[in-house]
Amino acid sequence: QVQLVESGGGLVQAGGSLRLSCAASVRTFRTYVMGWFRQAPGKEREFVAAIGGSGGTTYYADSVKGRFTISRDNAKDTVYLQMNSLKPEDTAVYYCALDFHRSWNPSGMKYDYDYWGQGTQVTVSS
User: Fold this and answer.
1) Do 31 and 53 form a contact (C-beta atoms < 8 A)?
2) Which residue, 61, 104, 103, 99, is CA-closest to 83?
3) C or N terminus of the chain, fewer CB within 10 Å?
4) HSE, side-chain direction, 13 A CA sphere, residue 99
5) What is the pLDDT of residues 36-51, one digit of tens each?
6) Where are the beta strands (DSSP E) in 1-126?
7) DSSP assignment, residue 30?
8) Distance (Å, whole) CA 62 – CA 106
9) How far apart are CA 58 and CA 71, in angstroms?
10) What contacts 57, CB < 8 A, 6 or more positions away?
């Protein structure tokens, strides 16, 4: 059974930084695309970033490009989301997700992801 556990959320002022982590309990973690999504109150869950299994390919939503960086440590079965220059509109619950059918060519479509974490709250104050 696949489990994903996010951590690192919190309250930060606009312009600040946070680093989210997602620890996975899954065999051969390195073979799966991982993604980060977020959901603000009253809104649809939206794509933030994704990374291929080897870490060599990344993909970002336009709204976070240049501010957020996704990375992974396959030795620790963990994926990270470094968030810099945070804005109030980044406030949301952030979820990590695993695409069980894809090792590369990461997708930005939530329907492509098979397993989800419980989410971690990020609040950016103005």
Assistant:
1) yes
2) 61
3) N
4) 23
5) 999 999 999 999 999 9
6) 3-7, 10-13, 18-25, 33-39, 46-51, 58-60, 68-73, 78-83, 92-99, 115-116, 120-125
7) G
8) 15
9) 8
10) 51, 104, 105, 106
**Structure confidence by residue, pLDDT tens digits, 99-119:** 999 998 899 999 999 999 999
Percent of the chain with pLDDT over 90: 96
Which one-letter amino acid corresponds to residue 38? R
- The 10 Å Cβ neighbour count of residue 93 is 18
Q: Is the pLDDT of residue 125 over 90?
A: yes
- Residue 1: the pLDDT is 87
CB-count exposure of residue 109 (10 Å: 0-12, 13-18, 19+):
exposed
